[in-house]
Structure formats: C-alpha cells, structure tokens
Amino acid sequence: MVSSNKALLSAVALATIILMVMARPSVQASVYITNQLTKKVLIVHCRSKDGDLGAHAVANGSTIHWSFGPNLFGGTLFWCKLAVQNKRISFVAYDDDNVNTVSDWIVLDDGVYGRPYQRPTFLMAAWTRPNISTWISRDQESAFTS
Questions:
Q1: What is the dihedral sign for C-alpha 116, 88, 126, 98?
Q2: Distance (Å, whole) CA 58 – CA 40
Q3: I want to staple 114 with a disulfide (CB 3.0 to 4.6 A). Which of 45, 82, 102, 130 is the partner?
Q4: pLDDT tens-digit readout, 106-127
C-alpha cells in the first residue's frame, strides 16, 4: 500500500511538472548593449551560470544583443564586463528574479545607462580603472589597452 501511494505521488508530481512546462508560454528575453562612446570600440564580455557568450568588440554606434529563454523556475542571470582603453565596468545585464529588470543598455563616456521600458535612462555603473592584470589574462591585455 505504501509503495503504491509513493508511485501515485511520483506520477502526480511528474505530470504536474510536464503540464507546467507545456503550459509555459515560449517567452524569449533579449539583452541589448549599445556603444555610444565617443569614437571608441567597446569590448563586451557577458556570461550566465550556464554559458559564456565570449568577448566581442562593438564599434561606436553598434549594438550587441542576444535572446534566450529564461529558466522555468526563475534564476536566469547574465552579467557583463565592459572595457574601453583602461576603464572597466561590471554589472548585471539581466536578472529575471528582479521584476524591474532592465535589458536595454547604453554605454556612454561616463558609464552604463539602463533604459527600462522606454522610460528615461538611469546610470547603472560608472567606469573604474582597476589593475588590468586582475581583470583579464595577460594575452588579452593588448586588446584592452590599444
């Protein structure tokens, strides 16, 4: 009897999970990072716990973006490191656990600005000048300092 109750409970739990996955709308989220620096190339390196998007050089006036399906149970998080010449910024680019998450970013000479839902922008992070050797490997250093 106990064995059949456990089997029934397991079957109900599995059916519930399957129904939740099937009922979930196929929502795609996107992140946009636009380089509006004055005549400078921006290096963008973003990642989540599930993967590394790699480093990309983004020309002035250009945008890098990616789309993804957020985790069914929440917790989807992307963070980025930006570099231009000898300045750096690290910030959370997407957090689906935050109801006010911003996924549209503009990079200006004084920092990174968020554009939430076509509202006015706000400064998310200002540029810093960290010790470059703690931020990237030596073989990548030339790309950030040129």
A1: positive
A2: 9
A3: 102
A4: 999 999 998 876 565 777 888 8
